[in-house]
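Quick start: what a row looks like.
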Amino acid sequence: MKKKIEKKKIETKHFVNKKGAYIGGFCGVEPPKDSIEVDTPPEDARQTYKDGQWSEYVPVKGINTQSILLEIIGVMSGDISELSQSTIGWYNENK
């Protein structure tokens, strides 16, 4: 006879500290002492919770993450290319 396995729904609960700063979502573990449960997480972790609601979400202007990533990738590929060229040059000089 097979035992019926009961599935428990595990729910993530969200918490802030006394100043309203978001601490995080906790699922199946106890949150930090003195934390306060809130209904929803913020749109952005920089928001604060006060009087039952999150502060206004204001996206950071002037930051283009795509161009930053492309620049990082470009620098990395340039470094790799330069490293490869110097390694090949060293190898050819020392064979």
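That is the whole record. Strands lie at 13-16, 22-26, 36-38, 49-50, 53-54. The chain is about 30% helix and 15% strand.
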